[in-house]
Design a protein that fits this description.
The chain has helices spanning 88-114, 119-134, 137-146, 158-171, 192-206, 233-253, and strands at 15-24, 27-32, 38-43, 64-73, 78-82, 177-186, 213-220, 223-230, 257-262. It folds into 3 domains: 15-86, Nucleic acid-binding proteins (OB fold (Dihydrolipoamide Acetyltransferase, E2P), Beta Barrel), CATH 2.40.50; 89-171, DNA polymerase, domain 1 (Orthogonal Bundle); 177-262, EIF_2_alpha (Alpha-Beta Plaits, 2-Layer Sandwich). Strand 1 (15-24) and strand 2 form a beta hairpin. The strands form 2 sheets. Strands 1-2-3-5-4 form a 5-stranded mixed barrel. A 4-stranded antiparallel sheet has the order 7-8-6-9. Helix 2 (119-134) crosses helix 3 (137-146) and helix 3 (137-146) packs across helix 4 (158-171). With 263 residues, the protein is an alpha+beta fold. It is built from 6 helices and 9 strands.
Amino acid sequence: MSPRRRSDWPAVDELVLCTVTKVFPQAAYVTLDEYGGKEGMIHLSEVASGWIKNIRDYVREGQKVVCRVLSVDPSRGAIDLSLRRVKESEKRWKIERVKLEQRAEKLLELAAKKMKKTLDEAYEEVGFKLQEKFGDLYGAFEALAKDEKALDGIIEDGRWRKILAKLTKENIEVPVFKISGTLVLSSHQPDGVDAIKAALLAAKESIQSSGAKVDIYVESPPRYRIDVTAPSYKIAESIMKQAADVAIETIKKAGGSGEFVRG
């Protein structure tokens, strides 16, 4: 069972874990595991890129899939989803995140028992507040593992704060996420080598204050590897994008060309 959320509806562009319930030639219908089993639809054009001969080659009843939310219309009870717009890295991240959230809910339930409260009461008093602030429960516990003051201004009850801090210290490790990508930079200008060096230096300087660990090194010209290690997947992705954008913009201004390849 997926952990609960206060919101009844997902947000546009959110990644959601779903279970395929019905498959037709032009669409597949799913239930959203984290949103009370609400039904969503994946149109054939959003199942996979390119021409699809048989939709069942890609989805089948009972299958768990990670989808991106394209649109939500509560008045019609309609949720449009995409399977093809989810990267493999995003799929892995979402599945892992759901598992971590299930673990976080167990910790919240344990905290509730120590407070002599039910899990429902725990969600109402602290759980939903933590989700709203940090995105999910596990994100809140990760933040608390890094900084005991992470709950300041969010949870006022000292008893909750003390119990959650203790459980977090005992059960949650400070998170580290590492992602990689490749910059392809080239220049046929007389000073092309210097232009590439300047682009890579500009990329590294642009993220020096990010707090993440960033390594940029030569794979084999014109390919240059970027490794980013950060406390969260989203932060790592943001830093990676910023570094790549700066490098590409710098090399283009110098008369060269550049592109970024993920993974």
